């Protein structure tokens, strides 16, 4: 693809793995080190001893001053990490660190309450909203989208189900690929206009394959889920999520912040991406290369602090967003995902659940999601059996790096937690 797609990369909210597989489409972005400042955020370490991964004890390597903490400092000093990292165990903070700048121009550092663009991690909120409506009997996972939304061709309205949308098996693609979207997104200056405009594109786009026949990550599918939330609940999508997800989980620094808010509020991390020249730039200040939509949408870019994401994890796993039965239903794997190269023989592949990715590692159930775009690299893991939560939020979205630092850190944390 040409630089035209890269110019609008600021509105891409794809899962990090999906972005990496399409990194040639963002060829104007390169990778180069840049020095980042590091600052400790106040941490409340858990009092713990030992290294037994399956017990109530916290491995020494995960505590302040341990191997993982030293690794974070190293990556920050090398310019490879800017953002916040939080590890919690059974509701108590084990390690919390912040590095780099939220706004380099105004010399505001990232801190524990800095809000970061979540990219596709925000799909978790949309998925939970749909499951809430299902729990109330207002949505049927097996029902086709034509029962809730008008305007789709009969072949789509009568074949794509809510289940297909939640599991990325709908056959829908990604609205960001549409010339119509790229030509009109700048004119959508409200949440309602953003959702209506994107849905206009989605309704006109043909399916890539017969629903249910394979898995193919779809941002269009999750925007459609957001439209269903809005239609069924009778509330604007953004208002529903604020009330029934953010407020219900006690998330005080989380919202779908608008572009004017992002440009004026230093508590919201600016997104920094690398050009092919090695220069790191604020994507909001380079509309010649990037285009930021007025507001995020159901497929991505709500904004949250690491502490708020830990609150979300506690609310979800504690059955405060859904009852126990529907929580279990939502987080249980539904569709196996392709194996990554190097996956050990006999290893259980991850499965797509209703929102999160569900996996089993050495007998432990883990759910989570990642996200990435120019200026954002995010990830959350929730350990259902041992109560661990790992949150990594970065405003250095170096999507051409494979694997991204956020994924490397998640794997290192997983190794230290599980053993």
Automatic annotation (TrEMBL):
<dbReference type="Pfam" id="PF00144">
    <property type="entry name" value="Beta-lactamase"/>
</dbReference>
<protein>
    <submittedName>
        <fullName>Serine hydrolase</fullName>
    </submittedName>
</protein>
<keyword id="KW-0378">Hydrolase</keyword>
<dbReference type="InterPro" id="IPR012338">
    <property type="entry name" value="Beta-lactam/transpept-like"/>
</dbReference>
<feature type="domain" description="Beta-lactamase-related">
    <location>
        <begin position="68"/>
        <end position="396"/>
    </location>
</feature>
<dbReference type="InterPro" id="IPR050789">
    <property type="entry name" value="Diverse_Enzym_Activities"/>
</dbReference>
<dbReference type="GO" id="GO:0016787">
    <property type="term" value="F:hydrolase activity"/>
</dbReference>
<dbReference type="InterPro" id="IPR001466">
    <property type="entry name" value="Beta-lactam-related"/>
</dbReference>
